[in-house]
């Protein structure tokens, strides 16, 4: 790798020596932490070098990035970053950049007046050619000064078909149009072939009724935004965040400041069960004879829906003032086991029958007819959450500021006749209104930046049930020089800090639905290029759950080397521990059977202990400019009881009911016939390997192919998943207004589990179609 960056901005003389000494100390601390000992906020973890959204999908599906990083990068890729208008924090959101490089871009922009061509940054020595090439997909190409008000945008249609699925396929239509220099309008519409109708309360059954599945169109994203360097307003769907994401943020940005349009729709890659009903009031199970799997709907992440406005730069005698105000009434779909009847249950943490989620029955034309019961479904549009808030901040410059943020929310349930409320596992707090207020600051000088935020949450949960609100705080320091950066951070989140709009640096553990809660920890993160041809990412995070006093840790080191112009090998190492007090791979619960776990008062014993070691070897080979191969092999040794990705994403096991645990076993376990804990406690070895080929024979044509081999527990082919997944994709750019793409996937399960032997279809044949028009 050739790096054309200058010598950085370290001070000279004695100060320079002291700065280097401090950097050396931080580096040493990082090394000690890495060799001796996941964050919800984005740490990209790898050098991100992609051209299309499909390449991002591959990074996620091959576990090179996590789901949070993926969501952030997808939104960033679709919205783009304008080098001539982006703030310091907006540029820092781009992958691979350090604060030092961001400051050099801003200095060049100020001196030159405007960045007419991003390649000028390489010529001026601001960025290396490799870094600019990796950023190209995320940048908005600047037009000539006289064409800045022209109309441009895109329309994208997507469809997913699975062989054997006789329903209308899931579809998504997105569009965006920008004009007049600062106006942007757009939205996204979906056709979901498997979506329940509105839910209603049946007092005779003391249960919910929902209209059966049917193809239902809906428009989850729609917005209009007008923005200038000093003012901005957005109406419709949007995201917004401030400070260290502790008081309010749903933007998915690492350093948010203001509002962002929201139109992200994500394709899913797992089949859904066509039948999700139990016998209910009937005798026969409707899913007993036939339970095929069908194409999944596109996934939507709810943000806010309303109006936000901001005065971004009001001149002051020193610096400037920033003021934002926002209002939203967002309706939510809820997983059916994340609600309970507050009128029948005083404390949802109890495992009484009255405190469980009310059943959902299929509505019939005859209200008295016997009917079936839905399981593991989402209730559409069951609650509205009305939110309003504000942010006021004074900036001395781009690096130094103080700010105040506050918001309040009120849930409004749409189902009449029952007093529904959020279950403890849901991220939204129960018992009425909730909110938070906080203060944040930043300070920067030369190579150092310091950030911090403190916050206080409020809610209506009784104090006897860990409610009433609590305090939280975070402190973060970043040292940047040349292409290297070290970040140190410390955090404290009270167990009562129930703030669903908090997205700070945190582990992936959840306490009663929230990640930034019940946690005390610190982490060190390094990203940079120690030499011209070496890219190194290292990370160490240690935290304690205050309720259990269990110390946990995650560390990794990832190195990629440009050995030659055509060969880039890499080696990644990662270690995780769910209890540092456990010195070996063993289970720490005294239970011996699954039923004993379910009988425990504290079901968090299910996830007590557990360690994981991952070793990944990878290699990228590019013999010619238009062709490259990527090979990766990962070997994992662990004794997690269930796959960690599902553990952190689907179900919070702390104090949930037996039904939730049974559901979690169905979602995450994928285990057949396991009755004893020691069966799940055995040291397990997994393999995950793939080969990817990307070719561009001619300029308009782009071909991609990948085959992945995945085997959980290589010693037993009848317990977990063993599969081969391959796909072939072709995209041809006829013109900017016509870019069709088609993809064929073949997914074949090889294991001998009972669920696999009866699985239909197997193998799975997928066809994905996309047509995009840019103008």
Model description:
This protein has 775 residues and is mainly β. Helices cover 14% and strands 42% of the residues. It contains twelve helices and 36 strands. The strands form five sheets. The chain has a 24-stranded antiparallel β-barrel. A hairpin with a 2-residue loop joins strand 30 and strand 31. Helix 2 packs antiparallel against helix 3. It is globular and about 75 Å long. The N terminus is likely disordered.
Low-confidence stretches: 1-42, 586-594, 600-608, 642-678
| Alpha-beta classification | mainly beta
Quick check: average pLDDT?
Answer: 81
Share in β-strands: 35-45%
As a percent range, the share of helical residues equals: 10-25%
Calculate the terminal CA-CA distance, rounded to whole Å.
35 Å
Question: What Rg is obtained from the alpha carbons, in whole angstroms?
Answer: 26 Å
Shape: globular
Annotation, overall tally of beta strands: 36
How many individual helices? 12
Oligomeric status: single chain
Largest sheet entry: 24 strands, antiparallel, barrel
Question: What's the short story on this structure?
Answer:
Helices cover 14% and strands 42% of the residues. It has 775 residues and is mostly beta strands. Helix 2 packs antiparallel against helix 3.
List the helices and strands and how they pair.
Blueprint: H1 13-36, H2 53-61, H3 67-79, H4 88-92, H5 99-112, H6 120-123, H7 129-135, E1 152-162, E2 171-179, E3 183-195, E4 199-202, E5 207-210, E6 214-227, E7 231-241, E8 258-261, E9 265-266, E10 272-273, E11 277-278, E12 293-294, E13 299-300, E14 304-315, E15 320-335, E16 339-341, E17 360-362, E18 373-374, E19 378-395, E20 401-413, E21 420-422, E22 434-445, E23 448-459, E24 471-481, E25 484-493, E26 519-531, E27 534-545, E28 550-561, E29 567-577, H8 594-599, E30 611-624, E31 627-638, H9 644-649, H10 658-669, H11 677-681, E32 684-695, E33 701-711, E34 722-732, E35 739-749, H12 754-757, E36 764-774
Parallel strand pairs: 5-17
Antiparallel strand pairs: 1-2, 1-36, 2-3, 3-6, 4-5, 6-7, 7-8, 7-14, 9-13, 10-12, 11-18, 14-15, 15-19, 16-21, 17-18, 19-20, 20-22, 22-23, 23-24, 24-25, 25-26, 26-27, 27-28, 28-29, 29-30, 30-31, 31-32, 32-33, 33-34, 34-35, 35-36
Helix pairs in contact: 2-3
């Amino acid at each position: 790798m050739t790096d054309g960056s200058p010598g950085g901005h370290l001070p000279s003389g004695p100060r320079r020596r002291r700065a280097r000494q401090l950097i050396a100390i931080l580096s040493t601390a990082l090394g000690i932490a890495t060799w001796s000992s996941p964050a919800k906020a984005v740490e990209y973890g790898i050098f991100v070098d992609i051209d299309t959204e499909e390449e991002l999908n591959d990074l996620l599906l091959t576990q090179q990035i996590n789901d949070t990083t993926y969501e952030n990068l997808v939104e960033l890729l679709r919205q783009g970053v304008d080098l001539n208008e982006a703030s310091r924090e907006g540029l820092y959101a781009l992958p691979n950049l350090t604060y030092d490089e961001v400051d050099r871009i801003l200095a060049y922009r100020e001196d030159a007046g405007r960045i007419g061509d991003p390649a000028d940054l390489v010529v001026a020595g601001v960025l290396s050619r490799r870094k600019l090439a990796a950023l190209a997909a995320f940048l908005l190409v600047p037009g000539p000064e006289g064409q800045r008000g022209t109309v441009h945008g895109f329309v994208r249609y997507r469809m997913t078909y699975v062989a054997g699925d006789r329903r209308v396929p899931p579809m998504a239509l997105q569009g965006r149009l920008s004009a007049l220099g600062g106006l942007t309008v757009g939205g996204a519409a979906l056709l979901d072939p498997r979506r329940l109708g509105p839910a209603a309360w049946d007092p005779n059954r003391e249960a919910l009724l929902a209209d059966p599945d049917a193809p239902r169109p809906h428009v989850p994203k729609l917005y209009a935004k007008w923005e200038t360097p000093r003012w901005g307003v957005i109406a419709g769907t949007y995201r917004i965040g401030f400070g260290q994401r502790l008081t309010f943020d749903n933007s998915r940005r690492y350093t948010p400041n203001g509002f962002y349009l929201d139109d992200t729709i994500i394709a899913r890659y797992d089949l859904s069960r066509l039948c999700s009903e139990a016998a209910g009031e009937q005798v026969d199970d409707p899913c007993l004879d036939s339970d095929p799997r069908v194409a999944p709907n596109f996934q939507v992440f709810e943000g806010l829906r309303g109006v936000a406005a901001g005065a971004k730069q009001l001149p002051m005698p020193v610096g400037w003032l920033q003021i934002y105000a926002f209002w939203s009434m967002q309706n939510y779909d809820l997983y059916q086991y994340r609600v309970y009847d507050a009128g029948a249950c005083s404390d949802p943490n109890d495992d009484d029958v009255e405190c469980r989620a009310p059943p959902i029955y299929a509505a019939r034309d005859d209200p008295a007819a016997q009917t079936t019961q839905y399981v593991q479904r989402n209730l559409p549009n069951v609650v509205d959450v009305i939110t309003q808030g504000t942010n006021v901040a004074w900036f001395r410059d781009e690096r130094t500021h103080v700010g105040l943020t506050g918001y309040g929310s009120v849930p409004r349930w749409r189902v009449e006749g029952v007093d529904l409320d959020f279950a403890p596992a849901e991220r939204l707090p129960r018992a009425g209104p909730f909110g938070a207020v906080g203060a944040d600051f930043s300070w920067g000088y030369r190579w150092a930046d310091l950030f911090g935020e403190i916050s206080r949450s409020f809610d209506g949960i009784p104090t006897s049930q860990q409610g009433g609100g609590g305090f939280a705080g975070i402190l973060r320091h970043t040292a940047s020089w040349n292409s290297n950066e070290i970040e140190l951070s410390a955090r404290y989140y009270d167990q009562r800090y129930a703030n669903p709009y908090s997205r700070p640096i945190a582990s992936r553990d959840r306490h009663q639905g929230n990640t930034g809660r019940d946690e005390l920890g610190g982490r060190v993160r390094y990203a940079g290029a120690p030499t011209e041809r070496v890219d190194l990412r290292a990370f160490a995070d240690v935290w304690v759950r205050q309720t259990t006093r269990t110390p946990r840790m995650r560390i990794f080191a990832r190195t990629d080397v440009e050995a030659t112009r055509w060969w880039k090998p890499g080696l990644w190492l990662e270690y995780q521990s769910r209890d540092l007090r456990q010195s070996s791979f063993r289970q720490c619960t005294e239970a011996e059977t699954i039923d004993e776990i379910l009988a425990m008062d504290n079901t968090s014993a299910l996830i007590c202990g557990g360690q994981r070691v991952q070793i990944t070897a990878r290699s990228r080979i590019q013999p010619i400019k238009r062709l490259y191969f990527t090979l990766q092999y990962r070997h994992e040794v662990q004794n997690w009881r269930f796959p960690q990705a599902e553990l952190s994403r689907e179900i919070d096991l702390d104090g949930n009911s037996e039904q939730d645990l049974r559901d979690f076993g169905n979602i995450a376990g994928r285990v057949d016939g396991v009755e004893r804990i020691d069966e799940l406690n055995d040291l397990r070895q997994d393999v995950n390997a793939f080969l990817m080929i990307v070719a561009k024979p001619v300029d308009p044509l782009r071909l991609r192919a990948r085959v992945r081999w995945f085997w959980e527990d290589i010693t037993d082919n009848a317990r977990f998943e063993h599969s081969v997944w391959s796909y072939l994709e072709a995209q041809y750019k006829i013109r900017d207004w016509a870019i069709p793409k088609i993809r064929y996937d073949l997914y074949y399960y090889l294991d001998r589990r009972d669920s696999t032997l009866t699985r239909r279809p197997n193998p799975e044949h997928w066809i994905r179609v996309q047509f995009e028009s840019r103008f």
